[in-house]
Amino acid sequence: MEGQSSISFLVFRVGRFVYAVPTIDVREIIHLPEFRQVDEAPDYIAGLVSIRGTVVPLMDLDIRFAHPSAHHHQYMTTDKVVIFNCDGSPTGIIVNEIVDIYEIPADSIVPAPAYGRDAVSASVFIETVAKIDEDIIMILNQKKLFDPVYKPTEDSLIGGGADQSFCQVANVDKSIFHKRALELASLASREGQEDDLMPLAIVEAGGELFGIELDVIREFININEYRQVPCCPAHIVGNINLRGEILTLVDITGVLSLARGNIKSAVVVAIDNFTVGICIDSLSDILYLPVSGFKELPAALGQASEDFFEFTTLYDERAVVVINLQSILYKGNLIVNEVL
Predict the structure, then answer these.
(1) What SS3 string covers 278-333?
(2) What's the fold here for domain 6-189?
(3) Displacement of CA 102 from its chain's centroid (Å)
(4) Residues 70, 164, 179, 15: what is their CA dihedral angle, to the nearest 10 degrees?
(5) pLDDT digit string (tens) for 13-54?
(6) Are the folds of 6-189 and 197-331 the same?
(7) CATH T-level topology, domain 197-331
(8) What percent of the chain shows pLDDT beyond 70?
(9) Residue 279's pLDDT is what?
């Protein structure tokens, strides 16, 4: 991280705790499938799952940190798995919610407090924290997290170690987990399969779901207030002060022939050396999806739509259109060249 002005982090929630990891270390994100518990595995390994022919262990952070809540936890169909490459082998962490992607200034990342302990007994898995607006985010050291040599500090072992009797799901959910496991296992295994995965943010805008490629996304933000700019086209919503940077908010729903929703959130994108906030209704998910599963656009969409849309895919059995933001901004004449 040294020498970098900012670092991109994936932020997720496990129970009441919010953690972050560098996005560069994330291989993919999937919905939690059915998994198999195994003997002789560390207690914090919830089980194993087959993903495109590769056996991937799934870690439960509640058990890894020895949280008392691990005794009462149930897995939900809304849970996700963040998969890392750990020494060349994929390992997954079960999380409750993908919160956001943030570009965090390097000078906002500081060592975690020692809480009065000496260096030997200080935190093992959380070495640094970051301040994002009013939030404090714990940054995980995933290398130590996946290394069985490292253990949580003794004062965090409240109520003793967790058993795995909690690894249950409601009967109504079991078929969903099972279906996901079959789909993951049935995908063909091949070399270079990571190249087939595209990271996408699934967002809602104008009541519809769209996919945006993560390589143009800087972060997601909530909009509490903004300042309207006089004498601007209707698609220029206004300006906000984003940590000292004046950011212009742009509404793309008109170009897509959709009704404008409430201005509550935005995705901050960097395209061709300029940064702009694209207004959205909400962030639904962040996923790594196989390109082989993408479908061509229906012919009925027409040429104009083809300029803005790239292909379609499925998210929770709903159709999602992946949009080309660069084309929308330029060909949709949404770029304002005058100084605002």
Answers:
(1) EEECEEEEEEEEEHHHCECCCHHHHHHHHHHEEEEEEECCEEEEEECHHHHHHHCC
(2) OB fold (Dihydrolipoamide Acetyltransferase, E2P) (2.40.50)
(3) 10
(4) 10
(5) 998 889 999 888 888 888 888 888 888 888 889 899 988 788
(6) yes
(7) OB fold (Dihydrolipoamide Acetyltransferase, E2P) (2.40.50)
(8) 78
(9) 93
Instruction: Report CA-CA distances (Å) from 167 to 59, 63, 77, 203.
Output: 12, 11, 13, 31
Residue 235: which residues within 8 A CB-CB, separation 6 or more? 250, 251, 252, 254, 255, 334
Range 157-181 average pLDDT: 53
Among residues 290, 282, 325, the alpha carbon closest in space to that of 98 is found at 282
| pTM for this model (two decimals) | 0.68
C-beta separation of 278 from 326 below 8 A: no
Q: Which tokens go with 113?
A: 């407090």
312-340 per-position pLDDT tens digit: 888 777 788 899 898 898 888 877 554 43
Which two three-digit tokens encode residue 224?
């509490």
